[in-house]
Amino acid sequence: MSANIRGHEMHPGRPCFFLADGKCTDYDGRPGTCKTYNCAWKVESEVFPTWMRPDLSGVIISKIILPSRSDLTHYEVAEARGKLDVKTLNWLVQWSLNTGNNLFYQIDGKHHAIGSPAFKAAMAGK
């Protein structure tokens, strides 16, 4: 689901046009679509460590659930403040491998998928 907010295309889990230094520059004026979005760090606080909070880690983690293809459920990581750092990437990769959760992330414009063969095949075209 995407939205157009004051002339800017927005997508869940991707850095917002109004994001600066890890914070919303128009928090009080944000639309309903922003108010209802919750990053995976917030929703699954028992999974992700405190230091991975978006304003501290510089990444936004979204859990993507496809009702018709539950085998493709995955966590998508978006850089919100600069390049994904080694500490965060290492933690996410180890967590994905240890738990069997599908993970999709981007570095330097290249997409990477970790997970089941079906998931990796589905993400190959992204």
Overview of the molecule:
It is a single chain. By secondary structure, this protein is an alpha+beta fold. It has helices spanning 32-36, 40-43, 54-57, 86-99, 117-123, and strands spanning 3-5, 8-10, 19-20, 23-24, 59-64, 74-79, 102-107, 110-114. Helix 4 (86-99) links the parallel strand 6 (74-79) and strand 7. The protein starts with a strand and ends with a helix. 21% of the residues are buried.
Strands, helices and their partners?
Elements: E1 3-5, E2 8-10, E3 19-20, E4 23-24, H1 32-36, H2 40-43, H3 54-57, E5 59-64, E6 74-79, H4 86-99, E7 102-107, E8 110-114, H5 117-123
Parallel strand pairs: 6-7
Antiparallel strand pairs: 1-2, 3-4, 5-6, 7-8
